[in-house]
Amino acid sequence: MTRLTALNPEEATGKTKDLFNAVQAKLGVVPNMMRTMGNSPAVLEGYLNLSGALSHGKLSAKTGELLALTVSESNSCDYCVAAHTFIGGKLLKADAQVLHDARTGNSADAKTEAILQFAKTLVRKNGLVSNEDVQAIKNAGASEAEIAEIVAHVALNVLTNYFNNTANTQIDFPEVASLELQK
């Protein structure tokens, strides 16, 4: 059972309505996470602005989705794992194995794996990474701009993970089995 209400976009007013209209125009739908974030237009707008800004960064959209899967799995966010598996597969045409591997921070590409492992380290250490952790990602070929964006992607996904775990947002994407159940 959800703990926070997903607003009906047709009944929304003011800033929330404006934001819902923008999401609807871009995606063709207002996902439940955004409908629930709409209870606070400031939260929804902040999420949309950071997400939009990162879409113009150095890291590719595919890397952003893989990062989202790594962080979401680390935070046990079923909503985000389902959403990013769907987005990664349907919109970015990522292979199912690539998406599955990202959930554990793995990739066949060495630089991508280093990025995902750094993200896992950020989550595990609550951002308190060591000089060695930063040097390892630099040694893997990540620029300082890319490292900054990895941190921002982790922060964005921690926001959505914590939000959805708190709200118990109803999953409106095809559900994905927990990795714990696949052992």
TrEMBL record:
| Sequence ranges assigned to domain Carboxymuconolactone decarboxylase-like in this UniProt record | 41-85
Q: Which domain of life is it from?
A: Bacteria
Q: Which Gene3D superfamilies match?
A: AhpD-like (1.20.1290.10)
As recorded in UniProt, coiled-coil segments are: none
> Which GO terms label this protein's molecular function in UniProt?
peroxiredoxin activity
Please identify the protein, giving its name as recorded.
Carboxymuconolactone decarboxylase-like domain-containing protein
Task: Give the originating organism.
Answer: Flavobacterium bizetiae
